[in-house]
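Tutorial handout. Part one gives the primary structure; part two gives the three-dimensional structure as tokens.
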Amino acid sequence: MELGNTGLMEHFTIATVAEQNPDFRRVLWTGKHSQLVIMTIPAGGEIGEEVHDDVDQILTFVSGVGEARVGGRTRKVAQGDLVAVPAGTKHNFVNTGPNPLVLYTVYGPPEHATDAVHRTKEEADELEEAGKDEPPSS
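Part two.
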């Protein structure tokens, strides 16, 4: 049985790894059908309104406070909350607190390049627009 792109099991103490991440977005693991990504949204920042047409997304919040804006509805999010975003649903996550909003997210199938590290939202947007953040082809 092959696990992920390395053929080996990956193990993360995910809350600790996410808390120590200084980058806006960092891909931790990419498998054939899903991808694990950690994110740190600075105070006053946001992921940015988007729609993933063919990708489901599950976000789990590690620290900070914010708003989940999914499919026209808004809910507050904080440590321990999980939000599922079905493919084709408009969504955004906004940091409404004074500290970073830290989370990890699972995309199915993968949404980003296997080794993507985006230090800021601006860098992430530029790379996506330039076609340099494409998920691996199956």
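Part three, for discussion. The CA atoms of residues 66 and 77 lie 5 Å apart. Strands lie at 25-30, 35-41, 56-63, 65-70, 73-78, 82-85, 91-95, 101-108, 117-118.
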